[in-house]
TrEMBL record:
It comes from the Eukaryota. It comes from Solanum tuberosum. The keyword Nucleus does not apply. Residues 29-142, 154-308, 391-527 form the Plastocyanin-like domain. InterPro entries: Cu-oxidase-like_N, Cu-oxidase_2nd, Cu-oxidase_C, Cu-oxidase_fam, Cupredoxin. Keywords: Glycoprotein, Signal. Belongs to the multicopper oxidase family. Gene3D superfamilies: Cupredoxins - blue copper proteins. Residues 1-17 form the signal peptide. This is Multicopper oxidase.
Length: 548
């Protein structure tokens, strides 16, 4: 990977207080890998799978030149990066024209007022199922201390379900209503399972080894970058001290394992306090998956102390009871915001007293399993399956192209047949909005909102009613960008629409997203404070004649 740091006006009073720039050149291409012992094409970045980590600091400017050496158009999106006033860098179909095969395009964005653990991935055409993902680490500025002792090291782990079929085969099956079925395995950092059991794991599969020193404490950043499977993460004989999720410092508490749902990111402090009589298992196992042989669906890596006396052995640490449907929800409710910690700014996170703000608008979003609409398999939010237009929404808005989308997404489920449409939520600038996700599907779904961190204030089984508000956490509900919604349950979030632009609200589960379970939120500042159209904008659809 070619990367280098460039500081503006260096050698003069700390660059005259300018925020530094960091530059990357990335080529996305197919490379051959065998994560589960079978050769297949995966998407690599500069020949790496997973891709490189963007390691930056609050307020830095990031410039990434992306060359598309795939055989189809692509975009990269920066999951959780808020792109303040700059929708143009978001990298989804509603904001950017795709980067054609053989072309390159340069992203330039600032990680303004953010800290924490995030990741990037290709956002089009089911491509994330083939890789192309990597981590984003945003460090605190030196003037703002961490709410814990500085760790001795920083380790990123990507956990994911994995299919041997290509992303192109998978999306064809989704289109025909076949469904994904159970994955072929679980990967950790793009590698298959350690051969912990010869009857389950065949020899010759490469696995991840995490090397550590005894007595040291490491920060582990764990991202579920998979297709559609919730995963339980745990380390044999070690506690996971949760300290941060998706840019928010949390109340610090120990877990023996944690369910991490699709698109979610967490960071833990893990102290190497064992006697190292052997190596230890790092495990990611699926949750809520119907499979005749779930033992083969376990990702296993090795935690290796420098003074280890032998390989990991014995049974894997136990997962939660699959029959305990309340375990995962109770665990999710236990994750709280650290209201006294500073983060990107020195004032405590809890200075924003979200529970005291009056809600100005409410949206109740119902999903359903995939269904036939106009002869095609589609998924919906509130009875609408999103149709991506050939002209991105943001470009249509900027250049006043009529008829591309409608600002008519309903506040609640309408009594009408499901339809395919380009319907967008008409958000009001600086409105405080309550969104309830009601999951009528049979699987856990994750939902993500670009451009913002929202407050997760409640979740429960059953149908949400107005009486459900009495259960809301209005003090220290965690602020994040991706939340899970359990089957037959609801999750409520609150979000302050202070970031103008057009922002993607989507299912993170790729099968649901690909078939139309998304919309956008349009937020217009009357004072027009957004950044201008980039000079290197790619034009498509109705604006194709503008392309140079």
């Amino acid at each position: 990977m070619l990367s280098y740091y460039c500081y503006l006006l260096c050698f003069t009073t700390l660059c005259l207080a300018e925020d530094p720039y960091v530059y990357f050149d990335w080529t996305l291409s197919y490379i051959t890998a065998s994560p589960l012992g079978v050769k297949q094409q995966v998407i690599g970045i500069n020949g790496q799978f997973p891709g490189p980590i963007l390691n930056v600091t609050t307020n830095w400017n990031v410039v990434v030149n992306v060359k598309n050496d795939l055989d189809e158009p692509m975009l990269l999106t920066w999951n959780g990066i808020q792109q303040r006033k700059d929708t143009w860098q978001d990298g989804v179909s509603g904001t950017n024209c795709p980067i054609p095969a053989g072309w390159n395009w340069t992203y330039e964005f600032q990680v303004k007022d953010q800290i924490g653990s995030f990741f990037y991935f290709p956002s089009l055409s089911f491509q994330r199922a083939a890789g192309g993902y990597g981590g984003i680490t945003i460090n605190n500025r030196n003037v703002i201390p961490l709410p814990f002792a500085t760790p001795d090291g920083d380790i990123t782990l990507f956990i994911s379900d994995w299919f041997i079929k290509s992303h192109k085969e998978l999306r064809k099956e989704i289109e025909t209503g076949v469904g994904l079925g159970a994955p072929d395995g679980i990967l950790i950092n793009g590698l298959g399972p350690y051969h912990y059991d010869n009857a389950v794991v065949s020899g010759g599969i490469a696995y991840q080894t995490v090397n550590v020193e005894p007595g040291k404490t490491y920060r582990l950043r764990v991202h579920n970058v998979g297709v559609s499977t919730s995963l339980n993460f745990r380390i044999q004989s070690h506690n996971l001290l949760l300290v941060e999720t998706e840019g928010s410092y949390t109340v610090q508490q120990n877990y023996t394992s944690l369910d991490i749902h699709v698109g979610q990111s967490y960071s833990f402090l893990v102290t190497m306090d064992q006697n190292a009589s052997s190596d230890y298992y790092i495990v990611a196992s699926p949750r809520f998956v119907n499979s005749s042989d779930s033992s083969k669906l376990v990702g296993v890596s090795v935690l290796h102390y420098s003074n280890s006396q032998g390989p990991a052995s014995g049974p894997l640490p136990d997962p939660p009871m699959e029959s305990d449907t309340f375990f995962s929800m109770s665990q999710a409710r236990s994750i709280r915001w650290n209201v006294s910690a500073g983060a990107a700014r020195p004032n405590p996170q809890g200075s924003f007293k979200y529970g005291e703000i009056t809600v100005t608008d409410v949206f109740i979003l119902h999903n359903r399993p995939a269904e036939l609409i106009e002869g095609k398999w589609r998924t919906t939010l509130s009875g609408i399956s999103y149709l991506a237009p050939s002209t991105p929404l943001k470009l249509a808005e900027q250049f006043n192209i009529p008829g591309v989308f409608k600002l008519d997404f309903p506040n609640k489920m309408m009594n009408r047949p499901a339809k395919v449409d380009t319907s967008v939520i008409n958000g009001t600038y600086k409105a405080f909005v309550e969104i309830i996700f009601q999951n009528n599907d049979t699987t856990v779904q994750s939902y993500h909102l670009d451009g913002y961190a929202f407050f997760v204030v409640g979740m429960d089984y059953g149908l949400w009613t107005e009486n459900s508000r009495s259960t809301y956490n209005k003090w220290d509900g965690v602020a994040r960008c991706t939340t899970q919604v359990f089957p037959g349950a609801w999750t409520a979030i609150l979000v302050f629409l202070d970031n103008p632009g057009i922002w993607n609200l989507r299912a993170q589960n790729l099968d649901s997203w690909y078939l139309g379970q998304e919309t956008y939120v349009s937020v217009v500042n009357p004072e027009n404070s957004e950044l201008p159209v980039p000079a290197n904008t790619i034009f498509c659809g109705a604006l194709s004649p503008l392309q140079k």
